[in-house]
Amino acid sequence: MGNIPLDFEEFATARSGQLFRAGCVLTGDWYLAEDLVQETLGKLYQSWRRVSQLESPVAYANTVLVHTYLSHRRLRRSSEQPLASPPDLRQSDRDGALRVALLDGLATLSARDRAVLVLRYWEDRSVEETAEALHLSVGAVRTQSHRALQRLRTILGDQVWDLAGQ
Amino acid sequence: MSADPDRDFDALFPGALRAAGEVFPDPPGDLVARGIARGRHMRRARTVRVSATAVSLALVVVGGAVVGTKVLSGSGSGVAAAAPTPRQSLSASPSAPGVSDQSMISSLESLLPSGATFSDATGRGAETDPVLNAVAPFASVVVHTDGGSSEIDVDLYRVAAGTPVTATSYSSCPGAVEHPYGSCTSHTLADGSLLKTAKDFTRPQTNTGQKLWSATVIRGDGSIIEVTEYGGGAEKSVTNPVDPILPTDQLAAIAQSGVWQPALALINSPGGQTAAAPAFVPQEKVMATLISLLPSGLKKSDQSGQNGFAELVIDDGRGKTAVEINVQPNMAGLAGSMNCASHAGQPGTCTASTLPDGTKEVVTRGASPSGNGAVVQWRVDALRPDGLRVVVFEFNAASASGPVTRSEPALTVAQLSQIATSQLWQQ
Q1: B4, B23, B330: best to mutate for the A interface, most A CBs within 10 A
Q2: S-S: B409 plus which of A3, A5, A21, B394, CB 3.0-4.6 Å?
Q3: Whole-model pTM?
């Protein structure tokens, strides 16, 4: 791969799956997640010499993904150049239906709320770390998390209790 | 049941979220390579941008003074307000196209209501769009007025190289299969451009939720200016169907404004198309070929499409079936995911095979993604060795979202396969 630092490709290969799934949860859209990860990897590549020296390139990559998501513009539209439908995510089993219900619920939240939830609960970051990554106050992260979870709980209704059985 | 449901849900949520993420299949096999290619491009673009920054900043100041004629603040005749732009001063400096990320944002904001405030502004100037593989400037802001908020985007791009620009290729309104609740009109303007305005929903398979209105101008030279507006605020930020603040005629005025001339000049220049854009099969050819491959004796209705895409409804006398087809060149990069492993975890059945001519075929039968579990979707995805991909879908309904019209779609999977793998698509 020419003059690419060797470990970038290794890092990207190891992390692309997780970044992609986080992108899917953020966007709810397989194709959009693909664009998002491509853009994120591009940004990491650009600055890899610096990024690779960081204490946690993985955390940095996830932060870049979320920032990219928050500023990402939808590039593909069905009215421009329609592509095949994204993979069908519907599940026939009960657990699958719950997962889809959760994703549908996430899709009703604002982009910033989803970003907060993904960093806090997908990436398992503390409130303080989430606040730092999103340039928000600790209080704002707490409030957004609480409101977003409350809203999800309302949307899911009684299915919330089925989650306990997963 | 717990005494504190909020606390219980908080505790369950991380695991549930991870489980939800697992329903998505693996990313495409070439994603890392594409990310590296994107990074290389960004590195090159950054070098160029540094030298152009000073020029761009100066132009923004000039533009702010000149394009202050708001499309929406005057007499209401938005189109008439479109003329004054900084174009003349820009054209005096041929080495500086003057289309930066910030100038795109400023141009859009200059056309929005006086007194409005803006947030979440993003834009792209002369940088190549990695998906379109061409220069495709855009700007996006969330506009706040006393009357409410809307996200407004403007996107400029060209039709794919070699695509004939006709009244039916890009200007046709979307069909009822994918946009059952939308309304759309299309007509020719005095200068020969085509104007399409549409009102729909952000999630077009429902008639609820955020509204999405748009205006698109397709010019005779193949350039397209598309203005999109999301009601209530940023895309998907609201769920109530509040009307966007600007009516579609004002979106049309934005699309026709002269402020986009520098960006149009850029995308129409030889350097604006950095490489051969994907040559989508003309809409008329897609539809004609699809119809020629359908069994005889079917009643056909609701025919529509765009380049590379067609949809129609067929009826064999036992209920309507929606059929959709995508014809996509240059998709060889998908070869690694033409298997059932890429569909793992999804309901229904999947079979994958390689045909004698090397075509990879994946057949799936399951629930329509937008049918609330009730609508059946059958799909045949065929990728030829030369990268030409044909994907055919059908539903047991006249729309991908229902309502159900019959127990199974009208065409057998074998018939779908014959359509997807036909040699006619390569002619």
Answers
A1: B23
A2: B394
A3: 0.45
pLDDT tens digits for range A10-52: 888 888 888 998 988 888 777 778 878 988 998 888 778 778 7
Polymer length of chain B:
427
Q: Is the pLDDT of residue B183 over 60?
A: yes
Q: Which residues of B touch A108 (CB under 8 A)?
A: 236, 239
Contact B35 A71 (CB under 8 A): no
Q: Over B238-272, what HEC string results?
A: CCCCCCCCCCHHHHHHHHCCHHHHHHHHHHHCHHH
Would you mind telling me the total number of residues written for chain A in this entry? 166
Question: What are the contacts of B311-319 at 24+ separation with CB within 8 A?
Answer: B311/B175, B311/B177, B311/B178, B312/B175, B312/B177, B312/B287, B313/B176, B313/B177, B313/B398, B314/B410, B314/B411, B315/B410, B316/B410, B318/B406, B318/B410, B319/B396, B319/B405, B319/B406, B319/B410
Asked if the Cβ–Cβ distance from B393 to A81 is below 8 Å, we say no
Q: What DSSP string runs through B345-372? A: T-SSEEEEEE-TTS-EEEEEEEE-TTTT
* Exposure string over B190-218, b if 16+ CB within 10 A, otherwise e: eeebbbbbbbbbbbbbeeebbbbbbbbbb
Higher pLDDT, residue B339 or B384: B384
Cβ distance B195 to B252 under 8 Å? yes
Interface of B with A in 109-138 (CB under 8 A): 122, 124, 129-132, 138
> Buried b vs exposed e over A84-105: b needs ≥16 C-beta within 10 Å?
bbbbbbbbeeebbbbbbbbbeb
The answer to whether the beta carbons of residues B293 and B419 sit under 8 Å apart is yes
**Where is average pLDDT lowest: A35-39, A79-83, A161-165?**
A79-83
Of A83, A110, A122, the CB nearest to B326: A83
- Residue B375, token pair as written in the block: 């609508």
Supply the ipTM of this predicted assembly. 0.80
Type of residue at B323: V
Q: Which of B4, B7, B9 to mutate to test the interface with A (most CBs of A within 10 A)?
A: B9
Closest residue by Cα to residue B136 from B282, B290, B309, B266: B266
Interval B144-179: pLDDT, tens: 999 999 999 998 877 654 444 443 445 567 667 657
